[in-house]
Amino acid sequence: MSEAFPKSTETPFPTFDANPAVDQFRAFAEKGMEQSREAYSRFKEGAEDAQKAVEASFENARAVSSELSLKSLAAMRANTELSFSHLEALMGVKTVSDFVELQSSFMRKQMELAMNQAKEIQTVSTKSVEELTRPLKDVVGKNWTDLKVA
Q1: For the whole prediction, is pTM greater than 0.85?
Q2: What is the DSSP secondary structure assignment for residue 10, as one 8-state letter?
Q3: Can you tell which superkingdom this protein's organism belongs to (predicted)?
Q4: Which of 21, 56, 74, 139 could pair covalently with 135 via S-S, beta carbons 3.0-4.6 A apart?
Q5: Alpha helix (H) residue ranges in the chain
Q6: Is the CB of residue 60 less than 8 Å from the CB of residue 128?
Q7: 68, 128 Cβ separation under 8 angstroms
Q8: Residue 133 to residues 21, 56, 60, 128: CA-CA distances in angstroms?
Q9: Domain ranges (residues) in the chain
Q10: What is the DSSP string of 108-147?
């Protein structure tokens, strides 16, 4: 019996050499891994910088809080001392005109003191906001620059 299909050593399909494709895939995978390592490294550095900035901000917040507390206590002390000295002076008032003059003087001193205290607290507050935000601004600026470069 003869065979319907003769046996042939040739295949009807061309042979496919997988080695170049494997080499290309390996190169692609290695490049992807290298890019992933670089991205992870940048992310890690950014996270560490952010952590340091937050820690610095908290330390600055503690220092600023102490300074504001001291300024507030000094203001309260000055107001209390002024009030007690005014009360002592009121005890020695003999006439209504002396009372009005003393009261006017007290109110003027009280207003000047309040304005000076408000200026001091505003100065400390402005400085504190700058100090609190500086570490975070620096990190964000650095990371933004790095992001633009990448």
Answers
A1: no
A2: S
A3: Bacteria
A4: 56
A5: 19-91, 96-149
A6: yes
A7: yes
A8: 53, 10, 9, 8
A9: 27-144
A10: HHHHHHHHHHHHHHHHHHHHHHHHHHHHHHHHHHHHHHHH
